[in-house]
Amino acid sequence: MFGLRGRRRMTPIVDIDDGATQPALGPVVVWLSLAAMAIIVAGIVGHVLKVREATYGGALEQARVSTDLLSENAGRLLDTADFLVDSARARVAGRTWDAIAADRSLWQGLKADADRFEHVDAVWLNDLAGNLRLVTHAFPAPVSNVLDRDFYRHFADGRDGPYISQPLVGRVTEEATFLLTRRLNGPDGKLRGIASVTLDPDFFADFLETFELPYGADMTLVREQGDVLVSDPPGGGAGAAAVAAAQARDVIGHGVLSGPISDERVIGWVKRLDEWPLFAVVRFDRAVIDDAWVDAVTPYAVIGSLALLSLLGLAGFAHAGERARRRG
Fold first, then answer.
1. Is residue 92 domain-resident?
2. Residue 298 domain flag
3. Where does the chain show beta strands of DSSP type E?
4. 17-43 pLDDT, tens per residue?
């Protein structure tokens, strides 16, 4: 007991090794950097795919809307031309061909009607033998015959209703044109001739140009039989127009009145005019669409690449620091 009250109990001192307890941050930084890089890559890829899909989807929708507008407006132009044909039929009903050919007042009235519409070139009346009896280009009518033309054969075979001819070069005008035609019937209902109007392809081509569509667009009006009536761009686009016509025929062959078209070079839409045996075709160049979406995603790809490089540098720095720590 002697001296025990004054003694203190001694706590053993433990030497703590700071190096053994400090967590190794290098691997953590490396793995976090790699995870962040993976997230950025996934984000860039997802954004690129989304923009690409949206661009193509928007282009296809624009093609569909454009074919709606093209078919509607082209239909109105044909409606006015058909009005002239019906007017001519009504004016000559019950009259002999000799009386029609000699009637200057009839010619003047039809010419005045035709001159009201820019897209109409002339009104034509042909008898059962195909001979031209009256045309608003000149009075009296010059000698001409349409016996071998497709529209004459159409009505000679007993068909009815309006008919839009193949593209042709007129024998009187020597200019490219196409015709909207209807049959003239006698009192017995039999064919006695043909009434028609020639339409100006240049007017229709200028009309197509007013759409000013993007993506290297080409636009085409195609007969139900597959012939190209007018296209934009003209000339150099003739091959494209032929392909567009073939694609339209493929859609027609499946009994579809409106639907998308696509190949390795273009996407687009085709639609049948509501009241006329024509198809409107609008197509966009895939290469131009690709340029558009690539331009849209490039800034994001650049920023993402810079972020990836920064994270890669951080991961490399952390890895080097960890190696140095282990060596020490």
1. yes
2. no
3. 120-127, 132-135, 163-164, 168-169, 176-185, 191-199, 218-223, 228-232, 258-262, 266-272, 278-285
4. 444 445 556 666 666 666 766 777 777
